[in-house]
Amino acid sequence: MLRIKFKKKFIISAVVLIILAGGIIFNYLFSPSSYPTFAPIGKQEILTNGEFIEDFDFTYEILKTYYPYFEVNKKVHNIDWLGNRAIYREKISQCKTDEEFYQTMNDILSDLHNGHTHLLDKEYGLQYYVLYKSLPRFNWRVDMVKIFEKPRVQARYEVTNENIDKILEAQANYEPKKTSYRNVIVGDIISQKAGYIAVKQMITPDLSMPSFKEEYDITKSYLEKIKDYPILIIDIRQNGGGNSNYWSEFLMPLIVDRSYSQKTYTFVKEGSLFSKLRRQSGFKKLTNNTMSGLNFPEETFNMINNFSYFASHTAKVVPHKDSIGFKGKIYLLVDKHVYSSSEKLASFTKESKMATLVGERTGGDGIGSDPMLIDLPNSGYILRFSKEMGVTEKGSINELDQTEPDVLISNPIKKISFDSNGNAILNGDKAIISIIEREGI
Question: What's the whole-model pTM score?
């Protein structure tokens, strides 16, 4: 009997220990890591021309291995980037300073015609580090930005505890800006009939951040006002992207009266750099059986033929409990500057029929997740690049086809403004005028 009691106590104790250990591990993995104590930045060494060439060669090999859009670039811009290696190498051989190398590298990378692929400048480098460092430890993005803690990268991007504190302090002490500089602009195009929301950038929807709290309050209040209007215009012209959660978890869920969804695919190439990304994002080996199950055009099959892994995704917009349940007509204004996560909204909207798109063909590269970052071994500059090919369920390559609007407007320049009384001044804004005429209001 004593032995049985002892056994029960042992089992209970073991279970409790396992639960406690599991809780500790869970909390560790799902909490952000702290910043290291950085050593003072020393004097940067002067690089030789040979080291610049080595950094170019490193970049070339990384892109050759992982970059997804060489064939798209050939088709659209008639540029064989990989075939131009000798030309690019000669340009790098003329570089004498870090600044010349940085500029020349970005000129070379601009031949890829991809807004996600370039060397990071100092300001955005430090911002990326602070942003990703706030994520849970397990996230592949956190591992990616550990490169900022390398001495060469730290020196290049002036990563110091003092500079990090300045960014965190600025975020905590945000002061509301004047209306014309706000990220979101709201107002009636036609009183009681046509509402308008313009979003300049897809910022991170975090209510703990004063900047977003202000935006949330402005948007929520305006949506309550226009919930019975027949028309709502959402303007993302000139919006180059940011965080997709802005529209998928914040803006659209507060508007829609039912759920919408879109299925997409992403494809990546073989290589150890993507190992954690593939595990966490559900990538599977791309096989002939997989290919046969996809209903893609032949051109798309030809484009994905040299990829090794794929993942399918179903994005959803679900009404929030505080949604206004808007039952009127929603229009989304787009232009060629709509890119990345704002492009993701355009593509989602077109495929799901959540709204009517008005404007011109968008900029593309919106299906997928954050670009990859990797440091160059000699200069410490960070290469940012698109890592996956995004494809719609019908087989449209987003970087190639972008998103074509339902109502095409040539040169749909954003001209609308509001006077001091909140009255809309259209200034000949063709896209908005076309909606007014279309709706007969």
Answer: 0.90
